[in-house]
Amino acid sequence: MKHMSKEHGFLIPDFDYCLKIGAGKTCIRCNSYRFRDLDAVQKHMRDKNHCNFRIDDTELVEFVDFYDYSIEESDDMSTLVNVMKEVFESCSADDDASFITIPTGSSIGHRSLMRYFKQSLRPNNVGIKTSTNRAHANFSLKQIGLNQPTSLLAVKLAKDTNRITNRVVQKYQLKKGLANNRIFVSAGRKDQM
To answer: Where in the numbering of this chain does the ZN622/Rei1/Reh1 zinc finger C2H2-type domain appear (predicted)?
Structure first.
């Protein structure tokens, strides 16, 4: 098998469990023509580069007869059951079984709590920093002579200015809209106006 894989690129999946090879005298790739002997099949496979399996599930079903997994399955199942028991015993759950701690130290939460895990909360110290920064900014403003009443006066003045500006813009837009309506001429007859 080493020669076939090295020289011809021929690989058989799960070679250890193979039972019969060469019984059908057909190419495993194209599976269309039955050859007279095993040498003819091998020559065809080398010439056409058919030295591999198709990896489709439907194609692999044909080759189930050539494999015997029964011996390994019983050993694998008993090994798998033992491993799962060990992992289950090493895991610890909370009283309400909403969290499980796995052997690596990580904890896994129940899916009903997923909405809480998806939240991205700010750290607690962020609020402290912003209030500290705000207090520092207010102190700096007081030092240079700008205190709270002056800033309220500036805010009121800005609101009044915005209100007046918006009123002027609305009057201008109304005037332009009316002028554009006078320019518009209907596509119909003149007596329809």
So the answer is: 1-72
